[in-house]
Amino acid sequence: MVSIENFGVSFGNTKILENISFDVKPGEIVTILGSSGCGKTTILRSIAGLQKEHNGNICIGDECVSSKEVYVKNREVGYIFQDYALFPHLNVEENIAFALFKLSKKEKEKRVDELLSQFNLLEHKKKQIHQLSGGQQQRVAIARALANNPKILLLDEPFSNLDAMLRYKTKIWLKALIKELNLSAILVTHDKKEALTISDKIGVINDKKLLQFDSAEEIFDNPKNLYVANFLCEINQLPNELIKQLNLQIEDTKVAIIKIDSSKVSLQKSDIEVKVIDISFCGDYYELVIELPKFNNHTLIVKMQNIENINSNENAYLHINKEDIKIIDK
To answer: Whose CB among 1, 118, 191, 296 lies 3.0–4.6 Å from 184's, allowing a Cys bridge?
Structure first.
């Protein structure tokens, strides 16, 4: 449904994005993940036709919408902005109806009532926007975005203004809705947990480039490089000298990583002696900060369910399975 090929954007002499390529199928949720300011929202704005100057191709269905001649056409895109962009001087009904200006009054009223019912907003029909909770405002924004039955839904940090529990419930509800309507959805966020739990595929952007684009499971289990690993996972980078001690081969252009819950610290002896710097109780697990005296006091973080008789500022031993170590690009 959506195809991005060799996409790039520059503002003056400053390149924001370059050579970005990915596809989104009907019923698929793709998340673009990256730090603030990396150009995620620029991709959404370009697909929607709000950012007109760009390189490469954007195709929706069988039509390329990159040329200026097609910007006036209906792209069948629904856009949900980070701040919802609702009109404060219009009530709930009027905000949703605003997207239906091409319909007759009767058709408009029918469609608005359908959406109000679908999104459990009927009792709020005549309320002003400031009278709604954050979750209700978000449902109004989603209803307005879906009013014209778009094939593509663009979501810019859609859960950032919600508290943790409401964010969780809304995420499940929206994911089910996208699948039910068979929409192509593109979400941008900097929240890795949000990306992993809602996405079919994830693209990670850094330094103008799309570093990796793959399924949520694949990109989590097999990050392409250190940036992707650090962004999506909780990992330790192991010193090369330790890797060689474990009889593993590593090149200078590579790094060795292990997830923080894949190793163990105990009083049982091993070849890797450590000093426990700090122990934090985190509810259902403990987080240990340790140093490796034989490896320039390299610092690691270890996540464990049980710390036995380990105490801070004492020596212990690190236990690592070589099978849990991944060697990836820097």
So the answer is: 1
pLDDT digits (tens, 9 = 90+) for 196-254: 989 999 999 999 999 999 999 999 999 999 999 998 889 999 999 999 999 999 988 99
Torsion of CA 206, 330, 258, 293, to 10 degrees: -120
Strand 315-320 relative to strand 272-281: parallel, antiparallel, unpaired?
Answer: antiparallel
Query: What is the enclosing helix (H) or strand (E) of 217?
Result: helix 216-221
Compute the distance between CA of residue 168 and CA of residue 82 in angstroms, rounded to an integer: 17
Average pLDDT for the chain: 89
- Please list the alpha-helical segments (H only) found in 65-184: 92-97, 105-118, 134-146, 164-181
Neighbours of 72 (CB within 10 A): 7
Measured distance CA(73)–CA(203) in Å, rounded: 28
pTM score: 0.86
What is 235-329's CATH number, 3.30.1490.100, 3.40.720.10, 3.20.70.20, 2.40.50.140? 2.40.50.140
Q: Are 30 and 198 in contact (CB under 8 A)?
A: no
Q: Determine the straight-line distance between the first and last CA of the chain, rounded to whole angstroms.
A: 34
Percentage of the chain with pLDDT > 70? 97
pLDDT of residue 305: 92
CA gap 205, 288 in Å, rounded: 31
d(Cα 144, Cα 92) in Å, to the nearest integer?
Answer: 10
Q: Options 3.30.420.40, 1.20.1300.10, 3.40.50.300, 3.40.50.10310; which CATH number does 2-231 get?
A: 3.40.50.300
Place of tokens 């701040």: 83
pLDDT of residue 301: 96
